[in-house]
Amino acid sequence: MPNCQICNAEGTTEYTVAPKEDVIALCAMCLEAAQGTISDGPHWQCLHDAIWSTEAPVQVLAYRLLKALPQSPWARDLLDIAYLEPENLDWAEAGITAGSDEPEIIHRDTNGAVLSAGDTVVLIKDLPVKGAGFTAKRGTSVRGISLVADNAGHIEGRVEGQRIVILTEFVKKS
């Protein structure tokens, strides 16, 4: 039996990456995470390589595992730079929403426009950034935002090289 296609560990089980029928080999820890039980730990540093795999099902599962670690700054940063082909991204997102019974959180800007991950927004007010010692000025463009998964009123983005949390009431989509 081949090694785990996520972390390269031995002792694997076959796992189907839904909603497609592609099968990959996973170790016990990766299999448990793929089925919904994951917590941050050193084991998941393997996702730095897995997200860049040339095999679509491996890349899709790595994306889903990174999305399941929103509290981990390294996972958010890796998601920010990761690139998946559009059809693989759709596949990855379909698997995330298919298993969820919770209502979807919708992020909206000050005008009510729906925000999506990767959008560009403009600050509509000067915002003092706590702990960073600077003020994010009105009119500043924030590209490639991330959505805070459990709070519709918060997004994340980089301003002056710092990753900050921004309230959606102080941005407009551009």
Automatic annotation (TrEMBL):
InterPro entries: YjdM_C (IPR013988). Residues 107-173 form the Protein YjdM C-terminal domain. It holds the Pfam family YjdM. This is PhnA protein.
